[in-house]
Amino acid sequence: MALLALGFLAWGASACSSSASDSGAASTGGSSSGGSTAAGSGGSSSLAGADSLGGTDSGGSATGGAAAGGAGAGGAAAGGAAVGSAGATAGAGGAYTYTGPCAPAAPDVPAGELSLRIAGDSTAAIFPATDPRVGWGAVAQQFFLAMVKVADSAASGRSSKSFIDEGLWSAMKTQIKAGDYVFIGFGHNDEKTADPLRYTDPATTYREYLKTYVCEARNLGAIPVLLTPISRRSFAGTMISPTHGAYPAAVLAVGAETSTPVIDMTERTRVWLEALGPTDSVPYFAPGDNTHLSAMGAPEVAKLVVSGIKDLKLPLASELAP
Questions:
Q1: What does the pLDDT read at residue 98?
Q2: Is the pLDDT of residue 271 over 90?
Q3: Nearest-CA neighbor of 227 among 208, 210, 212, 202?
Q4: Which of 21, 111, 167, 223 is deepest in the core (most CB within 10 A)?
Q5: Torsion region of 157: left, alpha or beta (phi above 0 gives left; psi -120 to 50 gives alpha)
Q6: Contact of 214 with 227, CB cutoff 8 Å
Q7: Which long-range contacts (CB under 8 A, 24 or more apart) does 266-269 make?
Q8: pLDDT confidence of 113, banded at 50, 70, 90?
Q9: What is the DSSP letter of 15?
């Protein structure tokens, strides 16, 4: 694989030391029109509940917000505070602030094999073969040349908070090496206001957790990329009804604040679904499910991620399969 010279020095060091109280309000509207992205703007568990807003899926719901099977490596944080993340602190009332260092973007990607590592929820996760749900990350390898290895750590039912609290991010960090790409996509479970173990506020804690992923990935020499949550198949007539509230706009705001590339999957999947329409879009989702993709839908969403890589002109684009 040819040396990938990055243009990320122009993005520079990110502002990752701001507190939750001064992270700013979400911008109105959030996503760009026409499916454009805002530049600068393995195996996973099926436990711990659904990603659909306010509901549960066939994997079972989280009782009292606690993930079935217990906390992952590193343990669950007492009181919901994140653990295992340098510089990540929980203040009064569970307010979350990232105060650690944040390295500038790496100037180069070393020649040789690299990994595309995915931190996210069930919309990107790997499920058992018998499960009708298929995450886009589970089928992403086919879109890359052999020198890029897709390592999908996305896990069903997780939010940006619980992925850290359960030790999944700590475990993932032990595998990250300089030059790797880290794709970060949460939101579906962050929206669960009744679940304190997963809920994050899009104006404060959600942004701070995203900054933690961005900064800690950079500190390891990796290249973070943020993704907004994919749209649910929620039609009002022939148009998709927004269901993610202020979360997509919050991702875009963090991208702008930290000079991190963003692939606006909320907008890209909205355009895709509206082009299909209410009827033809049905088989792209698991049976009776408007949140989780099917074996037919996952590759289509993976293609939208690929198109985002191309549109952002990420050096990773040179490693896409023809």
A1: 80
A2: yes
A3: 210
A4: 223
A5: left
A6: no
A7: 266/30, 266/31, 266/228, 266/229, 266/230, 266/231, 266/242, 267/31, 267/32, 267/33, 267/35, 267/36, 267/37, 267/228, 268/35, 268/37, 268/304, 268/307, 268/308, 269/230, 269/231, 269/301, 269/304
A8: confident
A9: -
pTM over 0.85? The answer is: no
Is the distance from CB of 143 to CB of 76 less than 8 angstroms?
A: no
Q: Is the pLDDT of residue 160 over 50?
A: yes
> What is the predicted pLDDT for the residue at 9?
35
CA dist., res. 209 & res. 224, Å (int): 13
Q: Which residues contact 228 (CB under 8 A, 6 or more apart)?
A: 30, 31, 185, 187, 244, 247, 248, 251, 252, 262, 263, 264, 265, 266, 267
Name the nearest CA neighbour of 185 among 125, 228, 234. Answer: 228
* Mean pLDDT (whole number) for 291-318: 97
Q: What is the C-alpha end-to-end distance of the chain, expressed in Å?
A: 14
pLDDT > 90: percent of the chain: 65
The CATH architecture of the domain made up of 4-18+30-60+72-102+112-319 is 3-Layer(aba) Sandwich (3.40)
Q: Name the region of 68 (left: φ>0; alpha: ψ -120 to 50; beta: rest).
A: beta
The per-residue pLDDT for 15 is 53
Following CA atoms 98, 100, 105, 109 in sequence, which dihedral angle do they give, to the nearest 10 degrees?
-110
**DSSP annotation of 299:** H
> b/e for 263-275, b at 16 or more Cβ within 10 A?
bbbbbbbbbbbee
Q: Could you tell me whether strands 114-120 and 148-152 are parallel, antiparallel, or unpaired per DSSP bridges?
A: parallel
Q: How confident is residue 108, by pLDDT bands cut at 50, 70 and 90?
A: low
CB count within 10 Å of CB 177 equals 13
- Per-residue H/E/C for 199-236: CCCCCCHHHHHHHHHHHHHHHCCCEEEEECCCCCCCEE
Give the model confidence (pLDDT) of 140-156 as tens digits: 999 999 999 999 999 99
Residues 151, 37: Cα–Cα separation, whole Å: 24
